[in-house]
């Protein structure tokens, strides 16, 4: 079987060209990038759950197996390569193993929505979160290689969103899912945006990075809140709201009436 065609490759990331002075001493950026590399590197677990969930849908299963999984895993490889190059003293493999062992125990098919259509709506929320994450990371940094990498990943995540959204529309009509149920599924996943996987990843990064503070919940919250605050100040609020509202398929006038105030609310919640 031939390898999948990917939109970009690791050869496009010039690790030797990294301007270390711009990133080396940024602990917040280290925590964010390393935890993201863990989640992306463990993506084969939830990909396999999704493939099983959509048994019988050959088209969607083929895309998940032959494209989405490979692109997500490439994100993990590229991010881990960047982290290892900038922070070579960090034992990435050992920390990732701890994450993967714990995450593997909780990443189960039980976490998925029973309705395929609602699960695809939830996937749209997740892809909104990842696209927003990498857009924010791109805005946070002025290191050229990292800007290239985060732009590649952000573009992949937006494309993944569009693909899930197309399949969502098919299942929405097939299962006759009303707007209220979609809203509930979207809201549920939004409320879980600080998801279990990213929290587990951040904890394993923190414990390995600061072994003297391992298990110190107060210090963990202090350090990670500072890093998360950096992201929130760069959240692309308008893009995020547009992507979240789309599955609701609201009438144009209602959509337009909600978009601006929701964008302002999002900015107030996250940017101040």
Describe this structure in words.
The longest helix is centred in the middle third of the chain and has 32 residues, at 144-175. It is globular and about 55 Å long. The mean pLDDT is 91. It has a single domain (22-271), classed as Ribonucleotide Reductase, subunit A, CATH 1.10.620. The protein is mostly helical and 272 residues long. Helix 1 packs across helix 8 (196-209), helix 2 (43-53) runs antiparallel to helix 3 and helix 4 packs antiparallel against helix 8. The chain contains 11 helices and no strands.
List the helices and strands and how they pair.
Layout: H1 27-41, H2 43-53, H3 58-86, H4 92-106, H5 116-140, H6 144-175, H7 179-191, H8 196-209, H9 217-232, H10 237-245, H11 252-271
Helix pairs in contact: 1-3, 1-8, 1-9, 2-3, 3-6, 4-8, 5-6, 5-7, 5-10, 10-11
Largest sheet: none
CATH topology: Ribonucleotide Reductase, subunit A
Order of helices and strands: HHHHHHHHHHH
Number of helices, where a helix is a run of at least 4 consecutive DSSP H or I residues? 11
Mean pLDDT: 91
Radius of gyration: 19 Å
Backbone shape: globular
Integer tally of domains: 1
N-to-C CA distance: 51 Å
CATH superfamily: Ribonucleotide Reductase, subunit A
Proportion of residues in extended strands: under 5%
| The CATH architecture | Orthogonal Bundle
Structural class: mainly alpha
Helicity level: over 70%
Strand tally, please?
0
Instruction: Report the top-level CATH class.
Output: Mainly Alpha
Stretches with pLDDT under 50, minimum 5 residues: none
